[in-house]
Amino acid sequence: MPMVDEKKRAKRVAKLDKIQEKIDKQMEKIAKAQWKQAALSYDKTKALGWRQEEMNINRKLAKLRSEMVKKFENPHEMFQRDHLVWYAAKYGVVGHIQAHVRTPGALEHREEPTLNTPLIVAAINGHLDCVQYLVQAQADVNAVNALGKSALHEACEKRHAEVVAYLMSLPQVDPFIRARNGLLPHQIIRAVALVYGDKWGRYAKCASAVEQRICVLQGWLFESQPDALVNRYIFDHVGIKAHSWVQSYVRVLRTGGTELEIVVYIANGPDSCPAVPVRVIMYTMGDPVESPIRKRNLNNKPHTFSVEGTQEFPSRNPVKENFEFAALNEEALGTWMNFFSNMLIELSAMSAATNRLRGASAGGRGSISVEPLEQLFPSLHLPPAEEPHEELFPVNPEPQELAYEKLFPASAKTMSPEVLSPNAPPLLEPVVIAAVPSAPPFRASILESSPAAPAPVQKGECVVCMDNPREGVCVPCGHHAVCMDCAGLILSDSKACPVCRADIREIVRMYIC
């Protein structure tokens, strides 16, 4: 079929771009409506009104997408054959991706000058169904564009939380690729949210999806504020040194190397952490960790420790300094100190496994295949673990009114039934190595004294030796089933999960504080 002249082509493409802009605006309105419903949950009348508003927006959105499909008719008149998949991914027309994905060169076509692949451009525009289909068609999920950004980078930067959640559920997606500016995907979220804000919590949801994958330990800690105004006032007028403590929720994140991020949030709970933290400390594995810290004249706390690192956020200071923390009880302190004592060996093994997975992904797209998405991710919410661990020290005795899942409900698109046939056994959800919160809800009196929490109760024993407690989590199947002694035997022998018999890549220790 002959192509139309350049003037007509430009006019038709401009109409497609205009429809895409309208779709983006409607998606922003949906995010606002969902946030309002959660925020006004105490007022049923107002919440119902916003629910009706969301339904109206969805109807407008469906009309716009239908109009997009009509305007994309006869694409051969506008685009070359091996470019059709790229433009169908850009405008969210999954039917044309299905029809032309087998065209030689179409799946990994790169458009000049951005060098975006179809998968990257689908992620940029938030077309979840197109991203899903391209992944099943064995598109390179770790391909980068001219700026060194992968599909995950772009989805994070453009606040497409559903696309981010889906990509992070795929074990072959590498969250440790650095863009040309040196930033990891979760670091891009912080940088952009700091500049543009996060009015409806879309960046926060993206950050949560990424951090669940790369988090190795999290819990409540008191952070010392050495430069607090009250400290300086007391020292200037009385001549004594004092501690000022702020209760914070702290996460330790991997970066793909020998450095860890210690991220400090001011939040009501682990499900309400904002996109922008209070502080990010870069800690190099093996650097000094001291416990207890040196006491001052006033307001000392028990269960203290300090780490030596550099501040990376909000302002970067390359000079190493000591950051002081206090755990809520002796058991939590033991968990943190045990983590810093043993992480060098365990996280080095995890980094080596990650590098092997990167090599497998780069070696060929056929090396990793995916089960049909309707079975793996029916609603973009990963299934709960078979034996969820109990909260040792619940953060809130009553349910949070603005819980994270209520604040940012997911709404996954339905894939077209015409999908490619998989050729591998099902991949279960990726393991999120995280610890449950380790403190009661924050109260003003807790700064002065905190009652001792009950001793943790170890639940479950190793399914292999039936003796030691369960500590190891099989990756990628996610079964929390074995002790670390048996983990070494399994990795050196069968390399199969003792519960489901699936092949395992590694067994990592789960810390609970």
UniProtKB/TrEMBL annotation:
Membrane-crossing residue ranges in chain numbering: none
Start and stop residues of the ANK repeats: 114-146
GO molecular function: zinc ion binding
Entry keyword set: ANK repeat, Metal-binding, Repeat, Zinc, Zinc-finger
Keyword Metal-binding attached: yes
The organism's place on the tree of life at top rank: Eukaryota
SMART domains in UniProt: ANK (SM00248), RING (SM00184)
Stored InterPro entries: Ankyrin_rpt (IPR002110), Ankyrin_rpt-contain_sf (IPR036770), Znf_RING (IPR001841), Znf_RING/FYVE/PHD (IPR013083)
Pfam families (UniProt xref): Ank_2, zf-C3HC4_3
CDD domains: RING-HC_XBAT35-like
Domain RING-type residue range list: 462-501
Protein name: RING-type domain-containing protein
